[in-house]
Each structure stands twice: as C-alpha cells, then as structure tokens.
Design a protein that fits this description.
By secondary structure, the protein is an all-alpha fold. The protein is built from three helices and no strands. The relative contact order is 0.18.
C-alpha cells in the first residue's frame, strides 16, 4: 500500500505540539522465564527458530525476544503509537505529486477497501482532504 522513498527527501520528524511527555523506560531486573513459557511465546508469535541452534542458544534467543515482545505485533490492532510524537514530514520540494490510480479488478478493489478500513480502524492511517500527494495502490 506504500512505496519506500529515499530518506534524503525527509528533512525532519518533530515532537507533537499538543503536550510534551517525557517517556522513560524503567530499569527492570531481567527475570528469566521458564522454558515452557518461552516455548508457548514462540508458538503464539509463530517464530521460526533455526534448528541448528543449541538448546541454550535457542533459550537465550527466546528470552531476548520475550523481553522485547512489545515490539512485535500479530495484527494491525496491536500496533501502538509513540506517546507525544507525530510524524511531520518536510519535503525538500513542495511540488505536487499526483499520480493516476490504476483500475483494480473487483477482487483487488474489495481487498484494498478492506485493508484501508482495517488500517483506519487501527488508527494507522487517517482521512485527509488534501490530494496534493498521492500514489496508486498498485504500481
């Protein structure tokens, strides 16, 4: 649904103007989880672990993944925002970037609408009235 552009086109990412929030991660003591918990976690998140790892290496990897499980999502509904920040993209050029949308098949059109609705419901995208910048779904 998106096209990756060269980062040289982005000038900044600024804090949201609403209110400043200090975000600090508390220092936590590492608590090693039992193997059963790590195996269940691996199954739930459907990680594919290299079978050539030793049992100890596998447990260390799963422990690391478990400690950072808040960065993994299984659906769009689990995607969270970073408190106090919104992305503000300043382009090097303000020239209009408007491209014609390609005609979609009925199935593709239905799937595009479904995914757009899901992303809007999950607050990943929002509706805007400015169409100075757009790009076709399939390029």
């Amino acid at each position: 649904m998106a096209r990756i552009e060269n980062m040289a086109n982005v000038c900044s990412c600024d804090p949201a103007p609403e209110k400043e929030q200090s975000v600090q991660k508390e220092t936590e003591t590492v608590k090693y989880k039992p193997r059963e918990v790590l195996d269940q976690f691996c199954t739930e998140f459907k990680f594919k672990i290299n079978s050539e790892l030793t049992s100890e290496e596998r447990n260390q990897l799963l422990q690391l993944l478990f400690e950072n499980k808040d960065v993994f999502v299984r659906s769009l509904h689990e995607v969270t925002t970073y408190p106090g920040y919104q992305l503000s993209i300043e382009l090097k050029s303000n020239r209009r970037m408007d491209m014609r949308q390609f005609k979609l098949s009925t199935d593709d059109s239905f799937e595009a609408e479904r995914q757009i609705a899901l992303m809007a419901e999950s607050n990943i995208i929002e509706k805007i009235d400015n169409i100075d910048f757009n790009s076709p779904i399939f390029w």
